[in-house]
Design a protein that fits this description.
Helices cover 34% and strands 12% of the residues. The protein is an alpha+beta fold. It is globular and about 65 Å long. The model has no long low-confidence stretch (mean pLDDT 96).
């Protein structure tokens, strides 16, 4: 899941991405100076992602022995969907315990640091071009990585926070609350109408997306969302799954397996599945109703089979 790349960082693919971005910045800035045209750049780094192919100093930057064990690494999958155990067996990374896993984590951390520095190169160029005062910068990703949490890696048929709760950093030149943290529920698809609003264009009237420009600009606004909804269809193999998360709980509908219910306040590592317990029935019923609302609103194809089974699920 990791390897030492010969050569310097300049020979790494991710460095090439940063170089191409800097080249685009320079060319688009020159065009803007000529005709006033605004520009948009999407920089798509491949990582951090396994396999971690890294040059020095990033490969050896973090001592594996210094990395503490992931709190959920002692997962037993008791009352959990069998598919999670199946995925762990597919990758086969836990036989050596945390001692083996921390070798992977150390390289992943090195990967993160390398990308941090490459993003820094891009931001330095943005400043050198005197564009920092009129450019919106967004840093995010398409999915997380369990990286040893619950003895799992990457993404897959599991909805743990490490996989679904994404980093999202925004730099707005006119931010009214620098360094602030916003805890509103947002989706990646919210970026589309946000960019349209920045460009002065009309935003679409869609049921599951909205501009979050006010939030990015540090204004005291709300999305009005009390929950978020996610869909999963397949990765290594087909597996239909739906998830709804509120600020305190998470409910997961696995079409062909046991459901999942987690108390995110008292069990933040999601170790104890509370599904079908008498003491959590009211919470479970409420979250299933919330999921039904999301499924119906989006005309999700899961509507038919979820509605037929939800009263006994």
């Amino acid at each position: 899941m990791y390897a030492l790349q010969s050569g310097t960082v300049e020979t790494n693919f991710e460095y090439m991405v940063s170089e191409d971005t800097i080249d685009l910045l320079r060319r688009m800035k020159a065009q803007r100076d000529r005709d006033g045209a605004p520009f948009f750049i999407w920089t798509n780094f491949w990582g951090p992602h396994t396999p971690c192919l890294l040059p020095e100093p990033y490969y050896s930057m973090y001592d594996p022995k210094s990395i503490p064990e992931e709190p959920s690494f002692n997962e037993t999958w008791e009352r959990k969907p069998f598919v999670q155990h199946l995925v762990e067996r597919y990758w086969g990374l836990s036989a050596g315990g945390w001692q083996r896993w921390r070798e992977i984590v150390a390289r992943y951390w090195g990967y993160v640091t390398m990308l941090d520095e490459l993003v820094g190169r891009i931001l330095t160029e943005l400043q050198a071009l005197n564009c920092q005062d009129n450019t919106l910068v967004i840093f995010s990703t398409d999915h997380g990585d369990n990286m040893g949490a619950h003895r799992l890696i990457e993404k897959g048929p599991f909805t743990y926070e490490q996989c679904y709760r994404l980093p999202f950093v925004a730099m707005h030149p006119a931010c009214e609350s620098l360094g602030s943290v916003c805890d509103e529920f947002v989706y990646l698809q919210d970026l589309f109408p946000t960019f349209l609003e920045v460009a002065g264009l009309p935003t679409p009237d869609e049921s599951d997306t909205m501009s979050i420009l006010d939030l990015i600009a540090g204004r005291k606004k709300t999305t009005g969302r009390d929950s978020i909804y996610a869909q999963f269809y397949a990765q290594l193999f087909p597996y239909e799954q739906r998830m709804v998360r509120t600020r305190t709980h998470k409910f997961v509908y696995n079409r062909t397996d046991i459901g999942e219910l987690y108390d995110l306040v008292n069990d933040p590592w999601e170790m104890t599945n509370l599904i079908d317990l008498p003491e959590t029935k009211s919470v479970q019923d409420e979250l299933m109703d919330t999921m039904f609302e999301h499924i119906t609103r989006l005309n999700d194809p899961a509507l038919r089979h979820f509605d037929s089974i939800r009263h006994v699920y």
